[in-house]
Amino acid sequence: MAEETAKASETSAPQGKPPATGRASTPPKLRYQDIPDLKETFADSIGQWIFDGQMLRIEFTVTRLDPGGTPEQPTGRRLPAARMVLTPMCAVELIRQCQQLMAALEKAAAGAQQATAKTPTPAG
Question: Is the pTM of this model over 0.85?
Answer without folding.
Answer: no
